Amino acid sequence: MTEYHLLVEEVYEGYRLDKYLAEVIPGLSRSYLQRVVRENGVLAGGRAVKGSYRVGEGEEIYLQVPEAVIPEIAPEQMLLDILYEDGDVILVNKPKNMVVHPAPGHYSGTLVNGLLYHCGKSLSGINGVLRPGIVHRIDKDTTGVIIACKNDGAHRCLAEQLKEHSITRCYRAIVHGAIREEEGVVDAPLGRHPVDRKRMAVVQEGGKEAVTHYRVLERFSGYTYVECRLETGRTHQIRVHMTSIGHPLLGDVIYGNVRAPFRLEGQTLHAMTLGFVHPSTKAYMEFQAPVPKYFVHLLEVLRQGHKI
């Protein structure tokens, strides 16, 4: 059991208990916490309460959450778009709507499930059974190139390159609004949102260094097509950084909150280029994932009807 002793802050005054717990305990869904409250009970102000209870400022909340039972991750046969593969690494062009590694609610259909089938037991075990071989990740709705390692030596080598910011990672994105300059840099630390713990935000105190370089590729009426190069690799970095300068990604319902006149599934973000020093040959290698069809079609729509 993991025990939580919480003190309700003013911003959560009047929240339902289950919603409050989901906001302040990262990594646990509201539906899961509702079950914990129902089965294990929660104390608020020293008395047992239900999930519908409204919390008050300064109130002490106590609950116990059972340790997660990690299910066996099964290999699954799936069609992977493999860009490159050798004895050390495998690079895959991840499609939209595919989760990279298993997590609560997503224990099948992930990239890891497919890699386990394709690679068998030849994946690095550094990140454990849920993320074998995974060095970095991209969001479910982000497409593009991602690398996995087949042995621990390759994994350590790539992880060190990530730490040193020496891996080339370039993305393509369509953002709202007209960016005035041709290129620029967003240098703003990122951390958990102070209120919504499931989101990231620019956090000046306590945030981790985050740097994104961007340049304009094409301009449309109301939108801009950009390339974003990561100097660091924080969670949701491009999405948060572009929103912070007034240009959220088209289709990003979490950070954008801007209605898009197109039928999109998540943000228009594509991991285009990945370059690294090969762990065995020590030669620099660079790979590109072609822009997906939906992205190409959207660009054509913008060119035909909205180009400046």
Account of the 3D structure:
- With 308 residues, the chain is an alpha+beta fold.
- Helices cover 20% and strands 28% of the residues.
- It contains 6 helices and 15 strands.
- The protein has helices at residues 17-24, 30-40, 111-119, 152-163, 237-244, 293-306; strands spanning 2-7, 42-44, 47-49, 60-65, 82-85, 89-94, 143-149, 168-176, 183-187, 190-192, 200-202, 211-219, 223-230, 269-277, 284-288.
- Strands 5, 6, 7, 8, 9, 12, 13, 14 and 15 form a 9-stranded mixed β-sheet that branches. A 4-stranded antiparallel β-sheet has the order 1-4-2-3.
- The longest helix is centred in the last third of the chain and has 14 residues, at 293-306.
- The protein is globular and about 60 Å long.
- The chain starts with a strand and ends with a helix.
- The mean pLDDT is 92.
